[in-house]
Amino acid sequence: MPAEPGPLSARPDSAAQLAKAAVLPLIACALVLALLVLGALVPAVPVVGALGSRYVGQWALRFVLLGLLCCLLAVLARRCGSRRGATALGGGGAFALLGSLVVLGAQLSFAHDRGADLGPAELIGTGTPAAPPDRTEVYAEVGGTPLRASIWAPPTPGTDRPAVLWVHGGGFITGSRYEQRALYRNLADHGYPVISIDYRLAPPVRWRDATSDVVCALNWVTGHAGELGVDPSRVVLAGGSAGGSLSINAGYALADHDAVSSCGGAPPAPPIAVAGFYPAVDLAGAYDDNGVAGYARRVAISYLGGSPERYPQRYEYASALDRVRPGLMPTLLVTGCSDHLIFEDRVHGFAERLRAAGDQVVYAAFPFGEHAFDADFHSIGGAVSRAELLRFLDEHAPLR
Fold first, then answer.
1. Cα end-to-end distance, the chain, whole Å
2. What value does the mean pLDDT take over residues 252-269?
3. If you ran DSSP here, which 8-state letter would residue 321 be given?
4. Which of 82, 177, 301, 395 could join 77 in a cystine, given CB atoms 3.0 to 4.6 angstroms apart?
5. What is each CA distance from 237 to 66, 191, 195, 286, in whole angstroms?
6. C-alpha dihedral over 74, 79, 85, 86, to 10 degrees?
7. What is the pLDDT, as a whole number, of residue 175?
8. Chain segment 351-368, per-residue pLDDT in tens
9. Mind giving me the DSSP string for 43-96?
10. What's the rounded Cα separation, in Å, for the pair 145 and 348?
């Protein structure tokens, strides 16, 4: 008589069934990875394109490693007898691996060409270190609202240094002067004092107020240049997103004698140069593009009060695009090729308009970069932005 199967003879079948059950969630993970990588490679794909650009564009190496892990698990699943599961898992993992390698390779090549200093922290993406300011001052009180400036000073005292006046982003409705605190400390360590400021946020509409607050802050820096160790004739206005828009708009408005300080008095001299990272230089264009889930249009309505058709003069005043003319100060423009909020072709078109007017402009578009691709200090995008800004400062506001 044949022996009845015992517990030992049942173990191989149980192990195979367990392996087949375990491979199903792994397949789901591999497919999610593959979809995100597809979105990074084809950013025009709805929803997936924005998510892929955000995550794969920011942490490409992590997706390379995750894709490789899926491929290795597929080999293990095949050895456990789950051939179909292994094929699905391996296919998704291989696509994620190869696609994210394309993203990573393009970003590393771009960073090398632009002279960015990359270390293990930038490749892995370890985030942003704490970098508190050396002190904070109230630079003005407007309409009962105190406006503060935080200062990051170089480690050694000095005088008559060029400085960076930084304007934070946040769609004109939110944000913090601490947003790029590690960048400020890095610039200060290179010898550039950084003053990062508040400005009044919408709502209510602030299409004139925000620019006037930036002008007021520049006035304050000029008036306190001695104690700040700053040369008031060599201040660079810079910022990201909404802050980039305000920096460029205020700089050009001062050059055109079309700027008003919210704290009164005569407007200061124009900055020696301006820098905008993924800046909203064409607000009417951003309104038409509408951004992700209509965010750009909602922001524009909060900031300007309505559509470009209803308030054309407000959009014209608040958009640096409409201020382009020959004789403007040098401009740095850095953006992401896959920006879903401020489309790359808007920033590129702005750069081309400046070039056509004979103005000095430096333009850099980070491959597969989403909006605020440099938000993490320790990232490839963060290293690229630092390199671009330091090179621009060295050329147009060099340390003596």
1. 98
2. 94
3. G
4. 82
5. 40, 16, 10, 22
6. 30
7. 96
8. 999 999 999 999 999 999
9. TTSTTHHHHHHHHTTT-HHHHHHHHHHHHHHHHHHHHTT-HHHHHHHHHHHHHH
10. 36
Q: Which residues pair with 166 in a beta bridge?
A: 196, 238
Residue 28: phi and psi, rounded to 5, are -60, -45
Least confident of 6-15, 58-67, 291-300, 339-348: 6-15
DSSP 280: -
Question: What is the Cα–Cα distance from 38 to 96, expressed in whole angstroms?
Answer: 8
Note whether 261 and 215 are within 8 A (CB): yes
CA distance 374 to 371: 8
What distance lies between CA 297 and its chain's CA centroid?
Answer: 19
For residue 258, what are its two tokens? 């079309």
Copy the structure tokens of residue 188: 């200060």
Query: What single-letter amino acid sits at 139?
Result: Y
For the chain, state the CA radius of gyration: 25
Does 9 have pLDDT greater than 70?
no
Cis peptide preceding 204, ω within 30 of 0: yes
Please give the single-letter amino acid code of residue 151.
Answer: I
Q: What is the pLDDT of residues 361-391, one digit of tens each?
A: 999 999 999 999 999 999 999 999 999 999 9
Cα–Cα distances in angstroms (integers) from residue 397 to residues 23, 185, 192, 226, 391, in the given order: 58, 18, 9, 18, 10
CA torsion sign for 154, 362, 60, 48 is positive
